[in-house]
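So, could you explain the following?
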Amino acid sequence: MKILISQPPPDMEKSPYSELIRKYNVELTFHPFIKLEPISAKEIRRQKIDISAFSAILFTSRNAIDHFFRCCEELKIIMPLETKYFCITEAVALYLQKFITYRKRKAFFGLDGTNDSFFECMDKFKQTETFLYVCSENQQDNEIVNWLKNHQCDFQLGFMYRSVNNDLSEVMGKTKYDVICLFTPSGVYSLLENYPAFSKNGTTMAGFGNNTIKCLENAGFKVTIKAPLPLVPSMISALDIFCEATLKKTT
């Protein structure tokens, strides 16, 4: 089975993806479908955002954390110690240790990687904090934005990076994959813009996150592999379940 993962290649010695190879003898290809470009400090100033004035920062990815603290460094901003950080998953929250002294009292995260659990961890703070949602200029999670609006939160979007399509010819032009894994709506758009006439032709589509899954379905694809779910917190666990079921069918 050949699986295309639309992300940069990990360190396979430490990556749980290596366990998939060992268990199911699958062939994994890693290639990001999008590239992230930083938004400069000059452009940040044009947004009229006083970063240090926000008491709570929202992160849905490690990339958002990287670009937030890059912007802070470029703008010579030191975040107050009492700043709260709300993260979509524990893994994203733990990544904060690269930039701050990590304390549970100021780092909060959803329990299962879904937007619903993300909202639960923010709920009791919705009327007391001022939120900065760090996101891409051309890709925000509308469900998060709508939750903030519907609960009358004091919030602002902070555009600190933008996504651009990557060249997919190196991988898509040479090999037919049994499974293609997509992690963002931008990745779906990149696939369709690189290959407007793309037909899955038996390819199983995998989507991570509600917005990615909706984007795939709106484009006419059936999404067979979905994550995160309450008992399926990651794409790796979703692929493990799918590979095991496929193996049983063929034996």
In short: The domain at 2-33+167-249 is CATH 3.40.50.10090 (Rossmann fold). The longest strand covers residues 154-165.
